[in-house]
Specification:
Number of strands: 11
Strand content: 5-15%
Structural class: alpha/beta
Oligomer: single chain
Number of helices: 13
Helix content: 40-55%
Order of helices and strands: EHEHEHEHHEHHEHHEHHEEHEEH
Largest sheet: 9 strands, parallel
CATH architecture: Alpha-Beta Barrel
CATH topology: TIM Barrel
CATH class: Alpha Beta
Mean pLDDT: 97
């Protein structure tokens, strides 16, 4: 069974990467990110497009768009034109990123939220043309809490203090960002919305379930949240959740390699491939194989999901929520 990793950032511009994906029988969905810290995002999109054009059985891509220019009355029109060009070139969806709500501000100094009117024409257009919206809004709830050793994401916020909202009490709360995202989902009922990273609701299966019950157009991907699942829940609860909402969960890893593999030495590339193989083995085992993984100073039982549920998680849901796949 070829698996689809529905959330990666893989600059796989080297023949050995294609060989690795063939070895793993894997197709990856590269997600565009407007983040200057990771380099020129438009150049990333060009690489993602080229990879998908040359190896459509191994690569696909999701586009994104630039932050609002409140001095430009034609901002939404320009974004829509750019998105349509990307869709015509093969993009299978569009992403909005966490800087909306957590970093960007409006001319009056208030934080720009994802349900702001400036985005409405863009959302309406995506809804009209049938293209899905991947929403990375907010961060794990731990982002708004004091750092605690030994829990998921602690090291990330130590390395990236700018994103640790606990130190920025003037910023919107986690609850405020979730409410803003929910309003987008509700207002655009025919728009497929995928909440990246368990929809930033990794702390509560009930919070995810409530959205699934309320919004038929909402799903989440698991990207970068394997440790959260292991940390917060027991296997029985997770198994029941993944079975009940088997049509709303897309598997992803958030594998990040913004440095093009063509710039690695042969030794560096092969060494990194070892890390990639171990990442996927850990993911596959947790969801599909009986056993346990040692994590958080305890043995974490694997889910060993039934075959039909695994197929939806690893393949079918990605195709359903990103029809262009």
């Amino acid at each position: 069974m070829q698996r689809i990793d529905a959330h990666t950032h893989l600059m796989g511009d080297h023949p050995r990467v294609v060989a690795l994906l063939e070895e793993l029988d894997l197709k990856v969905l590269n997600i565009g990110v407007v983040d200057s810290a990771h380099g020129p995002w438009r150049e990333h999109l060009k690489t993602y497009r080229t990879l998908a054009d040359e190896h459509p059985d191994r690569f696909a891509w999701v586009t994104t768009f630039e932050p609002p220019d409140f001095n430009d009355p034609h901002y939404a029109e320009r974004v829509i034109e750019a998105l349509d060009r990307d869709f015509a070139a093969g993009a299978v969806g569009c992403k909005i990123w966490k800087h909306v709500g957590m970093e960007l501000k409006k001319p009056d100094g208030s934080y720009l939220l994802p349900d702001d009117a400036v985005f409405d024409p863009i959302y309406a257009h995506l809804e009209k043309v049938g293209q899905p919206l991947l929403m990375h809004i907010a961060e794990p709830l731990a982002c708004w809490q004091p750092l605690k050793d030994g829990v998921p994401h602690c090291d990330y916020y130590r390395r990236n203090p700018h994103w640790h909202m606990y130190t920025r009490p003037e910023a919107p709360s986690h609850a405020a960002l979730m409410a803003a995202r929910d309003r987008v989902v509700e207002r655009h009922a025919k728009l497929r919305v995928i909440g990246a990273h368990l929809g930033s609701l990794e702390y509560s299966l009930q919070a995810m379930a409530d959205r699934f019950e309320r919004y038929s157009n909402f799903a989440v991907d698991t990207a970068g949240r394997l440790w959260d699942l292991m940390y917060h829940y027991d296997a029985d609860s997770l198994r029941a959740f993944f079975t009940r909402y088997q049509d709303r969960l897309l598997w992803g890893t958030d594998l990040v390699r913004f440095k093009p593999y063509s710039q690695y030495s042969d030794e560096q590339r092969e060494d990194d491939f070892g890390h990639v193989r171990r990442l996927y083995a850990t993911e596959y085992d947790f969801y599909g194989v009986k056993g346990a993984t040692r994590r958080f100073e305890r043995d974490v039982e694997h889910l060993a999901l039934p075959g039909d549920v695994l197929r939806k998680l690893f393949v079918d849901n990605a195709r359903a929520w990103y029809p262009g796949l």
